[in-house]
């Protein structure tokens, strides 16, 4: 093959057209012409409209992830606000239910004692809102932990209620939490009052395998019927009077037994608890008991000498004469 037949033209990759400066000047002039023409005669308006219409679906698709992120944050913020509003509403409902229960009890009491004008007003019960953390792990007890403790002012023995009625009592207190023993626990007991007959009694937990309560020490012929409502009597100095406790579910009267077996159903649902109220024990709000009078030391010594002389004379407790007392 002769060298004259070889094609010596450069391949297309290495071919060079106009220079870079020429291209810059050409496209700059074209851009200036198009801007001037579009500004004066609106020549590129149809082109822009067609491009905007064609690119609209692409823009919508690219906007979907941004909308999802924004809507997700808005949704989470809305859930948080809704939960806060629900928590505040439940706490307010619990307070209102506790007040309504007290008002009903006071109304019944006013009907019986409306002739008395010197009736003292009812004590104002202090309350603290709390939330359940978790239930105790012991399968043989019904206890739960709340998120309020000694730092919040919770005391051992404080009653615990919700919007339906009494739940139990605080039995253990820690700095940031506390243990509440429910009414259906086998070690729980509460004094109750039958609103129909005004008869007092004592309700104990642990009945029916730990799912109900029992009204014990009631005579077999006691006036107790299914459906009777039992409330706190307030005689123990712990629970405020008039709070709903339970309803009579079954009454078994046995001829061979002196007491009737009365099963109770708690008015407060104990399986779906979340928000509750911790009340201050009523004993802390009662006036203190008066202290016994302290006798004067001289009078006490004189009384002792008189008692000793009287006992030696065969008359215990009676002074021998008035002169002994004067000494």
Alpha plus pi helix count: 4
Assigned CATH class of the domain at 127-284: Mainly Beta
Stretches with pLDDT under 50, minimum 5 residues: 115-123, 314-327
Question: Widest sheet: strand order?
Answer: 1-2-5-4-3-12
CATH fold topology of the domain at 127-284:
Thrombin, subunit H
For this entry, what is the oligomeric state of its chains?
A: single chain
Task: Describe the protein in words.
The protein is an alpha+beta fold and 327 residues long. 34% of the residues lie in helices and 22% in strands. Among the domains are: 127-284, Rod shape-determining protein MreC, domain 1 (Thrombin, subunit H, Beta Barrel), CATH 2.40.10; 297-322, no CATH class. The chain has helices spanning 20-41, 45-112, 297-312, 322-326; strands at residues 127-135, 143-146, 159-161, 166-173, 178-182, 189-194, 200-207, 212-216, 229-232, 244-252, 261-266, 275-279. Strands 1-2-5-4-3-12 form a 6-stranded antiparallel barrel. Residues 115-123 and 314-327 have low confidence and may be disordered.
